[in-house]
């Protein structure tokens, strides 16, 4: 299962908080997926990737309740937590930067807190940077608005890279994928 976190509705399309939806849409485009169903408060599609079925999920519960669809879907489809990839926005990373982790804390992210509360803790995290609010902007306004024009291409490039990293982790395994797609540290 690959779940991208975000908020449903036209008013949130293109918002920074919908980074997960953006990556799921890119994967669907790459894999020729265009049939979606509504299941357990989520948009769900099944892709065939290298002979394996992969469930694409966009929870429709709003970010703070994402676990209310991801947890039940994981159990319904009998998917092990380690086979759940979750893609979401991260303000602690620069715009478009990706960080993959096999596990960890919620990092203060309400969508991840909801997954924890709904029985999904040990999943692979794909954190896509949206940067910190500028100037006097508060966090809520920052995450619920689109990127300014000058950052849109940087984010789009990052979302495409995140989709490539998800594909790479599916093919190579998470450990090798992390080695290939996580940013290198300066030595």
Automatic annotation (TrEMBL):
Single Gene Ontology BP annotation: protein quality control for misfolded or incompletely synthesized proteins
Molecular function GO terms recorded: peptidyl-tRNA hydrolase activity; tRNA binding
Database matches in PROSITE patterns: PEPT_TRNA_HYDROL_2 (PS01196)
Active site: 17 (proton acceptor)
Enzyme Commission number: 3.1.1.29
Main location as per UniProt: cytoplasm
Catalytic activity: an N-acyl-L-alpha-aminoacyl-tRNA + H2O = an N-acyl-L-amino acid + a tRNA + H(+)
Keywords: Cytoplasm, Hydrolase, RNA-binding, tRNA-binding
GO cellular component: cytoplasm
Site positions (Stabilizes the basic form of H active site to accept a proton): 89
Annotated family: Belongs to the PTH family.
Function noted in UniProt: Catalyzes the release of premature peptidyl moieties from peptidyl-tRNA molecules trapped in stalled 50S ribosomal subunits, and thus maintains levels of free tRNAs and 50S ribosomes. Hydrolyzes ribosome-free peptidyl-tRNAs (with 1 or more amino acids incorporated), which drop off the ribosome during protein synthesis, or as a result of ribosome stalling.
Protein name stated in the entry: Peptidyl-tRNA hydrolase
Source organism of this protein record: Megasphaera micronuciformis F0359
UniProt gene name: pth
